[in-house]
Specification:
By secondary structure, the chain is α+β, with helices and mostly antiparallel strands. It contains nine helices and ten strands. The protein has a five-stranded mixed sheet with strand order 2-1-10-5-6. Bound molecules: protoporphyrin IX containing FE, the ligand Nc1nc2c(c(=O)[nH]1)N[C@H]1C(S)=C(S)[C@@H](COP(=O)(O)O)O[C@H]1N2 and molybdenum atom.
Length: 385
C-alpha cells in the first residue's frame, strides 16, 4: 500500500487550494442546507402526525390550507436541496484525504455522524424524488417507513455536525475571515460558483412548484401533476378503474350510505335523501402527500349534520369507509375536531356538477387541513367511535 500510494501520489487536504473548497464556501452551502433540511423535517413530521395520529395530540382542522402549504413546501425545499447537497459534497470532498483517518474517539464519533448525515441525506433526496416521480421499482421497502427513519438519522447527524462546525462556520463567515476573498485563482470564483448553484436550485423550484402554485403551471416542466389536467379540470391520483370501482358499483339507484357504530340511531340514506338534506358549499384544496394540490368548490352534506341525525355523542370521532374493496386509501380517520368542523363534507358536487367517477362519484369526503390520501373517495359508510 505504501509503495502504491507513493506511486499514485494520493492528494492531501492541502492539495486543494481553490476557494471553492474553502471553509467559507462550505459554510454558505451548509447554512442553506440547514435551512432547507429543517423545513423538510418539520413539514415531514407534520405529515407523519396526520397519518399516524397520536392519542394525546388532536390535530386541528384549521387553518384549512395549512397541510397544502406545509407539504407543498416539503417537496419544494426538498427538491431545492438537491443541487445544494451535491455542491456541498463537492466542496468538502478533499477532507476525505485528511490523515489520520481517526485521530481520537471524539473524532471517530464525528466521522460516524457524518456517515449518517451524508448517507441519510442522499437517501432522503433520492427516495423523495423517485416517489414524486412515480418510479417505485428501486424501493423494495415501505417508502414512508424508510424515509421517516432516515429523516431522524439524518437530523441526528446534522445536529452533531452543526455542533462540531459551529466555530469554524462563525470564523469562516466573519468579516475577519482569512478566506473572505479567497486566493485570487484563475478558475471559477466563489461568488460565481454559489450563484450557479443557487440558480440551479431556483430553476428546479420553478420547474416543480407549478404542481401546487397555479400561476406557475404552464412553465413548470418537471411538475409530475398539473393542477388543471384531468376529469372536470382537476388531476386524479388513483382512478376509479385502478381502484376497482366501476359505474355499476357506484350505481345511483342502488347507492346507500350508512352511518353506524357508536350512535343512537343508525342511518341508511340513499342519494335522493342525501340531496334533500341542507347542502353546504365550501372551497377547499385536495393536497396530495406528493406535494401537488388544487383548490375547488365542493357542495354536499356536512358530516356534523349526519352525526347529529344519527345521535352520535358530542366529541366523537369517526372512520370514513370507501366502497373500494382493499388498498391503503380505503378508509380514513376523522378526529373529533375534524368530525365537528362545519366544512367537513360528504360532497356530491364539484364546481356545481356531480362528481366525476374518478373524483369519487357518487359521494366523497372533503375536509379542511388534511392530506389528500385522507380525502376518501366513493364513500359508503361512516363508523362513529
Ligand atoms: C427531494 C427531497 C424530498 C422529497 C421529494 C420528499 C418527499 C416526501 C413525500 C412525497 C412524503 C410523503 C410520504 C407519504 O406520506 O406517503 C414525505 C414525507 C416525509 N419526509 Fe420527505 N422528501 C424529501 C426530502 C426530505 C428530507 C430532506 C427530510 C428530512 C430532513 C424529509 C423528511 C420527511 C418526513 C419525516 C416525512 C414523513 C414520513 C411519514 O409520514 O412517515 N424529507 N417526503
Ligand atoms: N377510496 C379512495 N380514496 C382516495 C384515493 C384512493 O385511491 N381511493 N386516493 C387519495 C389520494 S392519494 C388523493 S391525493 C386524493 C385525490 O383526489 P382526486 O383524485 O379527486 O384528485 O384522493 C384520495 N382518496
Ligand atoms: Mo395523494
Amino acid at each position: 500500500m505504501g509503495e502504491g500510494a507513493r506511486r499514485l501520489r494520493l492528494p492531501t487536504t492541502g492539495s486543494f487550494t481553490s476557494p471553492l473548497h474553502a471553509p467559507r464556501t462550505a459554510a454558505v452551502l451548509g447554512l442553506a442546507l440547514g435551512l432547507t433540511f429543517t423545513v423538510c423535517f418539520l413539514t415531514g413530521l407534520l405529515s407523519h402526525l396526520h397519518q399516524h395520529p397520536i392519542g394525546w395530540l388532536t390535530l386541528p382542522s384549521r387553518p384549512a390550507g395549512l397541510y397544502r402549504l406545509s407539504q407543498g413546501a416539503h417537496v419544494i425545499t426538498g427538491v431545492a436541496s438537491i443541487p445544494l447537497l451535491l455542491a456541498k459534497l463537492w466542496t468538502v470532498y478533499p477532507h476525505l484525504w485528511a490523515r489520520p483517518v481517526l485521530a481520537s474517539p471524539a473524532h471517530a464519533l464525528e466521522r460516524l455522524s457524518l456517515a449518517a448525515l451524508v448517507g441519510g441525506s442522499l437517501f432522503l433526496l433520492f427516495t423523495g424524488t423517485i416517489n414524486i416521480a412515480y418510479w417505485y421499482e428501486p424501493m423494495r421497502f415501505s417508502f414512508t417507513a424508510g424515509h421517516y427513519w432516515a429523516a431522524w438519522i439524518t437530523m441526528g447527524g446534522l445536529l452533531v455536525h452543526v455542533g462540531a462546525k459551529v466555530t469554524t462556520t462563525r470564523l469562516a463567515l466573519s468579516k475577519r475571515s482569512p478566506d473572505r476573498h479567497g486566493p485570487a485563482g484563475d478558475g471559477l470564483s466563489r461568488r460565481g460558483f454559489l450563484t450557479a448553484v443557487g440558480l440551479t436550485s431556483g430553476v428546479l423550484v420553478v420547474a416543480i412548484a407549478g404542481q401546487t402554485v397555479g400561476a406557475l403551471r404552464r412553465i413548470s416542466v418537471l411538475a409530475p401533476r398539473r393542477p388543471d389536467a384531468g376529469p372536470q379540470g382537476y388531476p386524479v391520483n388513483r382512478t376509479a378503474a385502478q381502484a376497482g370501482i366501476d359505474a355499476g358499483g357506484a350505481d345511483e339507484r342502488r347507492f346507500l350510505l350508512s352511518v353506524e357504530g357508536d350512535v343512537r340511531r343508525p342511518l341508511t340514506l340513499d342519494l335522493a335523501q342525501l340531496r334533500a338534506m341542507p347542502q353546504r358549499e365550501v372551497t377547499l384544496p385536495i393536497s396530495c402527500v406528493e406535494g401537488w394540490s388544487f383548490s375547488a368548490r365542493w357542495t354536499g352534506v356536512p358530516v356534523t349534520a349526519l352525526l347529529a341525525l344519527a345521535g352520535a355523542a358530542d366529541g366523537s370521532g369517526a372512520t370514513v369507509e370507501s366502497m373500494e374493496a382493499e388498498g391503503a386509501y380505503r378508509t380514513s380517520p376523522l378526529n373529533r375536531l375534524q368530525a365537528r368542523d362545519p366544512d367537513t363534507l360528504l360532497a356530491l358536487q364539484l364546481d356545481g356538477q356531480p362528481l366525476a367517477l374518478d373524483h369519487g362519484f357518487p359521494l366523497r369526503l372533503i375536509a379542511p387541513n388534511r392530506p389528500g390520501v385522507q380525502q376518501t373517495k366513493w364513500v359508503r359508510r361512516i363508523v362513529v367511535a
